[in-house]
Each structure stands twice: as C-alpha cells, then as structure tokens.
Please model this.
Amino acid sequence: MIPQGGSGSGRYNLAIETRGLTKHFGRQVAVDGVDLAVPPGSVFGFLGPNGSGKTTTIRMLLGLAAASAGTVSLLGMEMPGRFRDVLPRVGALVEGPAFYPFLSGAANLSRLDAAGRSTVPATRKGRVDRALERVGLSHAAGKKVHAYSLGMKQRLGIANALLARRDLLVLDEPTNGLDPQGTREVRNLVRSLAHDGATVFVSSHLLAEVEQMCTHAAIMSAGRLVAQGPLAELRRAGSARIRLLTPDAGQARSVLAGLGLAAEAGGSQPDGEVLLASLSAAGDGRLPEDVVGQLVAGGVRVRGFAVERESLEDRFVALTGEGFDVAQ
Amino acid sequence: MPAEVPGTAAPAVREARESASSLMLSELRVLFGRRRTWALLLALAAIPVLIAIAVRVSSAVPPGRGPAFLDRISQNGLFVAFTAMLVSVPLFLPLTVGVVAGDTIAGEANLGTLRYLLVAPAGRVRLLLVKYAGALAFCIVAPLTVGLAGAAIGAALFPVGPVTLLSGDVIQPPEAAVRILLIAAYLAVSLAGLSAVGLFLSTLTVVPVGAMAATVVVSVVSQVLDQLPQLEWLHPWLFSHYWFGFGDMLRQPLLWDSFTSNALLQGGYIAVFGALAYGRFVTRDILS
Model:
C-alpha cells in the first residue's frame, strides 16, 4: 500500500517530486536531470559528496533558485508558483544556519516567524519557546547569537525549521558542527518528527548518519541522481558475493560455471585457493546454501564459505568514486 | 455547503492583517534596535552639537562668513537647527541613508538570513516593499534627529526668540518649531529617491559595503553634475536637484513649488529604481 500524505486538504502521493530538474551556472551544469521521488512519511537521506549538487537541488526545491529546466512539486503543489501555500508547511535548514548576530536567539526566531505570511502573531512567543526547548536551547534564548557556539547556531537553525507544525522538513546537513551527543539528539528529533507524520528530507555526506536514521535514500554524483529508493532496496541492489576457500579450485570453477556463476581468483592461502563469485550475477536470487550443496555434491572440498554483502558505503563509493577528488 | 458563519471571517481577516504588519514591525525593530543605526543617528546629532559649541566658545561670527544662518545663532538658538540641517544635506544625510539603503537586501544576503526570510516565506515583493519602507523610515528619522538635536542644543546654549524668515517676516518660536519639522519633512522626501537607488544597488550584490559605497558615490556624482553649467539640460532630472530648495519652507507665506517639484522628481526615481529593484530581485537566484 502506498502511504498517502496530507490530512484533509490536498492529498499527495509524493512529498517531493522533481522531474528533469536541471540547473546551469553559465556553462557548468550543477544539477542534471534529477528525478526525485520522496514518499510521504519517509525519512529520506539525500547523499552525495561535496559539490555533487545537493544544496543547489535543495535551493531549487525551496524556490530560492530558479530551475534551468524541469519541475518541482512539494506536497503535491507546483513550486515555486505556489510558494504561498507550500512554504508555510515546510521547515528548512539550508546550507547551515544564518542569523542576526546582534539579536538574541529568541528574537531571531521571532523575526523569521514574523516574516512568514500566514503565521499567527498571538501564538508566536509560545511557538518560539517550544521550538527552543525542543532543541535544548531554552537556557540560551536571551543570549545574543554572536555569543553562540557553532553547535548552538546549528540547533537554533533546526529550531527555526520547527517553529510551526510542518508536513515536510528539508534539513541540509543538520548535524554539521554538532558534538556526538548533539548528533544523537538530532537523530532522535528526526525520528520523532517522522513519527508525528512529517516527511523529513535530510541531506548529508555522512553515510553512517543516513544509515542510522533514514528509511529511504538517494545518491547524487556530479549533479546526477545515480540511485534512489528504500534503504533496504539500495543495500540489496549492491551485489552480494560468495567467498569460497577450497583446494579443488578447478573443479569448483566448473561447478560454479554450471550454476551460472563466474568465479574469479581471490588469491591462494595455505589450505587452498580463494574463489570469488558474484551471487546476484546469477540473476534469479540463487541461495548461498544451494551453491554450497552443489559444490559438495560435485566433490569440491569446501574449507571456507562466506557471503559478503556490499555495505551502503561500498555502494556509495562505487557510485560516486573514491578519494578526495570531488566529482566534476 | 454550509453557509459562512458570520464572525469567523473577521478574526481571519484580522489575523492576516496582523501578520502582514508584523514583518514591517519586525523590520523597524531590527533597524532601530541595532547599534549601527544608533551610531549613525548619534553622528547626525553630533553635527548641531559641534556647531553650537563652536559658536558658543568662539567670538561673534562675522556676518556673511560660513554656512548660511551661522551668524544668527548667537542671537537665536533655533538657528542651530537650520544651520545643521543645511550643513548635513550634501554629505552627512546621504552618507547615513546610503548605509541603510545599501544594506537593505545585501545585508540580509551577506548574513544568509535572506534565504530564511524567503523560505519563511516572506514573499520577494513583500520583502522588497518592507525593506524600502524601513529605509524610508530612516529617511524620516535622520533629518528629524538633526533638527531636533539642533533645536535642543541651541535652546540650551543660546537665547531663543522670534525668528526672522528669508522673506523678512518674523515668526514666534512655536511656529519656528513647525518650520523645523517642515524642513525635516522636505529632507525626508529629498532622500526617498536616493533610498530607491540604494535599494536597487543592494539587490545587485551580497557585499553590503559595496552597495553602501556605491549609493553614496551616486549621491555625490549627482550633486557634482548639478554644478556643471554645461549639463544644464540634465539638472532638473538629477535627484539632488532640489535638495537645497528647502529655503522655501522659511518664507511667509509658505512656498510649496519646490516641495512639489521635489516630491514629483523623487516619485519618479522611486518608480524607476523600484521597478529595477523588483525586476532584479524577483528573478534572482539566492545563492548566499
């Protein structure tokens, strides 16, 4: 069953949907034909190395930058055309927090809340206090922001996204600058927001973070979307392979070939040869125990057998390239 | 369909109006709450104070030397206000207005708060209007500060009496106070066009100092061009053309010609540069 978002007015099948979203800066293509599909109620990780176009995509989602081509729809409504109806229901943290250093934390939130078209002044103070409490900043509410640490500013930025009840939260690198404890609090916060029915779109370059809190993910590389889907599916798409240790390498190869598995040498050890074969290459989900059964039946002495599944990190690196070379 | 329940619409309308005005209130609070604005206003207030003290400690000013009205200060303290307003027209007022108007959009972009205001969502047109209204508020407060500080320090250091106008008529101090307010209003109108130029320049950059400096330079250039007789055809179109026309506020009866011409000219600048600012800002990518 496809979960549907929105209660009462305006139901939608996807919280965020982009089609062919493209952004040029002069000759350079920053975002290239991105088709995002973020299901309602998901915690959606938006992964990619630095410079892969994540923030530019987010700017286009929120109407801060105009798309060179393609369309964006948030909560079932066209952006930026319907920003008046959409944005009050969206909380955002974009490319780090930004505040008036000469105002207190609470005054900053009041100011940004007052900027909204449909916010109710009568409830402002209460909402500001609650948002500050939610990120653990109540004690520093009256302090000027220039006296805040990086982590406190980050929390204040998250508090700003939580000023009103939101159906969608777009959080760009929400744990930047936070200590491990703060990171954990943000993870819990994201979970509780999702539990309350909001869709949370989190960009990150930290895989571990995404693996811990997200239900879905998309991977960007050099401006293109190279993978997206439920986290479990993304992991599964990463091939699993078997690792076999046997002294009967030649015989094992022929048995594996009979099963449709191409074995490659993985080096030799004192008690035999190591053979590697990709399981998913066989197509119709061959089970590891079947492979072992066939090998033994074929007279192969199996001295070691393991199934190695690619971690999301292997997959991420496979998709986006390794090292510090930022994809161009 | 259920009929509209009477009474439910009213609070909704009131709420909408409250929220529409709350960004304006917030803008004024931020503008006049920050230390920089106070420093600018204090600097402006220092002009009449310096003039008054200089006249007080020195011997009598020979008539006809120095800025107009200077020689009259020792007889009547209210002339400190007139002198100070006259002295601050060419540079000090445009300087402070340039700082405020140049900061409007570029300052928010530089802090990064622009993206959060727009995501709030403030609406680009609404934000631009509120920002310009804030700059206008400063245009009103700035000359008023000079005039009121001048009247206060003048009254403190010198005798206050009837004021002889440029037309030769004599008015009593209460009416002279009204004239000070009228001149402040004249100067506020005079600075409205420059503010619109500053607003436009502010939409072009994310470096507020650049927009501020450019605005001040524009005001100086306009005044220099206004001095060149070769460019006489251009003079009526320069926004600084009527800046010194406030002498008409010191005649009896009041002459409104220069006030009206000035207001029309400033209105033209507001329309042109407001449109340019709008054209630039509504399509601009906010990447800061």
